[in-house]
Amino acid sequence: MSGTKEEDRKGSSDWREFFWNPRTHELLGRTATSWGLILLFYLVFYLFLAGMFVLTMYVMLLTLDDYKPTWQDRLVTPGMMIRPKGDQLEITFSVSETESWGGFVHNLNSFLSPYNDSYQVQTNDDCPPDQFFIQEDSGEVDLSHSLPV
C-alpha cells in the first residue's frame, strides 16, 4: 500500500481544499471577486469581437449593389454551354465527308434556334438598358426580357 490512512486523508483533503477552501472562500484558488473580473473581461472581449464582426459585415454589405453583381468574369449568357450532342465522349469527323459532321451541325442549330434574334423579339418583353424591372408575382408565367448583348 502507499501509506497509512491518515496520509491518504491528508492527500484527499488537499484536493478538497483546493476545490473549495472554506477559510478563504476560494473556489479553485480564486475568490469570487477574481472570478467576477475574469468573467467581466471575457464578456467585454467577446462583445468587442462580435461588434467587430458585425461592423465588417455591415461595411462589406454597403459595397454590394442589389441590382448588379460586383464581378462579371463568366460568360455573357450563363447557363448556356455549346458542345456537340453525341452518344460517345470522343468526337471524330472528317471535314471532307459531310455525313460525319452533318448530324452535329443539325443538333447545334436545333439547340440554338430558340436563341435566334427573330424568335427572341416575338417572345420577349422589351427591357430598356440601365433600368431595373421588377415583375409583380401574379401567379402567371413570367415573361423573359430581351437584353442588349
Automatic annotation (TrEMBL):
- What's a single GO MF annotation on this record? ATPase activator activity
Q: Write down the superkingdom of origin.
A: Eukaryota
Transmembrane domains' residue ranges: 37-64
Please tell me one Gene Ontology term that the record gives under cellular component: sodium:potassium-exchanging ATPase complex
What is the topology of this protein in the membrane according to its UniProt annotation?
A: Single-pass type II membrane protein
Task: Indicate the principal place this protein occupies in or around the cell.
Answer: membrane
User: GO biological process: what's one of them?
Assistant: sodium ion export across plasma membrane
Which keywords fit this entry according to its UniProt record?
Answer: Cell membrane, Disulfide bond, Glycoprotein, Ion transport, Membrane, Potassium, Potassium transport, Signal-anchor, Sodium, Sodium transport, Sodium/potassium transport, Transmembrane, Transmembrane helix, Transport
Entry's localization field: Cell membrane
The family classification in the record reads: Belongs to the X(+)/potassium ATPases subunit beta family.
User: Which named protein is this?
Assistant: Sodium/potassium-transporting ATPase subunit beta-2
What is the scientific name of the source organism?
A: Pleuronectes platessa
